[in-house]
Amino acid sequence: MVDFTLSIPVPESVKTLLGAIPGLSTYTEWWLHLNPLHLVIETVLILVILYIVLWKRPSKKQTKLETLPPKVIEELIRDFVPEPLCPPVTVREESILEDYVILESKPSTETKIRGESKLMLNLTSFDFLGLCKYTPLYCMLLIYSPF
Question: 0.70 cut: is pTM over it?
Answer without folding.
Answer: no
